[in-house]
Every structure is written in structure tokens, then in C-alpha cells.
Amino acid sequence: MNPVKVDGDEFRRTVEKGLAERGFEDPLWLETTEDDAGVTMARRAIDDVVDLVLVAGGDGTVRVVCAELARTGIPAAVLPAGTGNLLARNLGISLELETALAEVLDGSDRRIDSVLVEGDQLPTDRFVVMAGLGLDAAIIADAPDDLKKRAGWAAYVVSTLKNLNHPSVRVEITVDDQPPVRRRARTVVIGNVGRLQANIPLLPDATPDDGRIDAVVLAPRRVSHWPRLVLGLVIKSWREEHLQRFTGRRIQVRAERPVRRQLDGDTVSSGTSLTAEVDPSALIVRVP
After folding, report:
1. CATH code for the structural domain at 8-113
2. In this structure, which topology does domain 116-280 adopt according to CATH?
3. Nearest to residue 243, comparing CAs of 259, 260, 225, 256?
4. Which residue among 25, 30, 100, 221 has the highest number of C-beta atoms inside a 10 angstrom radius?
């Protein structure tokens, strides 16, 4: 668990009570640290051959733990305790802790895809929600931490308004073996799931267990183009020239200059490329 995101003592009592009611033995408690977002903790759980890993934290903590659990056969049960909680939202898990705990403890296992990702100045890693470059990463980086604590995901709305005029960049997008597509874009997002906060369908065709990944390019030339683009996001049938979507097993994005990048809501080093490739059915998650 991420102790910054949850009330340690109260959370432990809630979890231990839920486990005891269902006949589980005393759990092994592992806390993330400022220097380790969950790698060592997940590996300890794997070495101990645990039956289930409860992951309590934000999307960043969830990503790191799920990356380690991929291809191990050990299920991950997400207890949403962050700002975005996008994996939990897309899996239909409640955002209320006690309800979520009951849902995953009484739920069933589901295999979903994990996505391998790499890029310049970025070692090979994994994500389960979304990776992006450009405006997408700027919004995440510029959302004030104090506002996220007080207002939750509304902090990202404030950051979005602040960054509406974020500079565009020329990108080249290659899907599988298809010819590359060149665009000038504000942002490119690659996703394993499709819905953002407020149920916004950024990638309406994306599902986490279809063996494919999806990408969206947002390319408004002026601030005045944003209202139509938002309609294109919300209404799938709406034709919008400043929005383009792609689907494949492997998607590579190259930018003409270094831009900000993010993996599952955590900013990573700026760079010029992201290459994502689906690893089908690599992760077991507990769902309601």
C-alpha cells in the first residue's frame, strides 16, 4: 500500500476485518516508499507465492505493482486510493474503500492485457491504463498536489484549462506494419482502457482484454477548436478533423523534438518516442 494515499491504521483494520470475515489468514503488509513505488514490495509478494495482492494507492502504484505481477499468475486486486483511479474505474470497481474491498474479495479473476512500453531515455516498462506524450503529460505534471488532495480529479480540469494552448509538435505514428501517419498534434495517448474521469470515452473501442491497444491523436490548431473536439470525444459518431484514432497490437509514436511523457498518470523523462506493444492476457485482476 502507498501510506501517503491511505490512512494506515484505519485501512489496516478495515482490510483485516474483511479478510477475517472470509477466512483469510493474517495478511503480509508491505508499504511503498518515496524511493520505491512498489517494485521491491511486489517482488517480495511474488517470492512468498501469495494468493492475492491487494494494491492500495493511486494509478502510479497500481501500474508498478501490476508490471511486476504480469505473467506470474498472481491476481491483483485494486483498492482505489488515488486521484484518477482509472484502472479501477474501467474495471467497474467502486471508488469507496469498503465497498471496493468487498467487491474484490468476493469477486472473480479476469485476465487482462498488459502493455510493454519503451522509448528514448526510457527503459522497457509496462502500463495497464494509458501512456501519452505532449499535452496529456503536461496536464498531469501541472495539476497542483494540494488541489488534488482537496478536490480530487477536478485538479486535472484546472490543469487542462491552464494548458489548452500547449504547443503542438510534429509526430509520426506507426501502427503494426502499416505505413506511418504524420500529423501535427497537441497530444498522443495510447491506451489499454478507454474511459477517463467523469466517464469521458477518450478511447471508446478500447477494452483491456481484446489483445489490442488503441491510440488517439488530438490536434486542435487553435483554442477555439476545443469545443468541437470535446464533442468528438463524447459523441463517437461526431466527425472531427482534429481527432484521429488508431488500433493495433503495436503502436509507435515519434516526435520531432523532446516532449513531456507519462505512464498511467506518472510523469517520466521527456523524450521523442514511445513504443507500446500489447502483451495479451498477461495480468490477472480481481473484478466485481
Report:
1. 3.40.50.10330
2. Tumour Suppressor Smad4 (2.60.200)
3. 225
4. 100
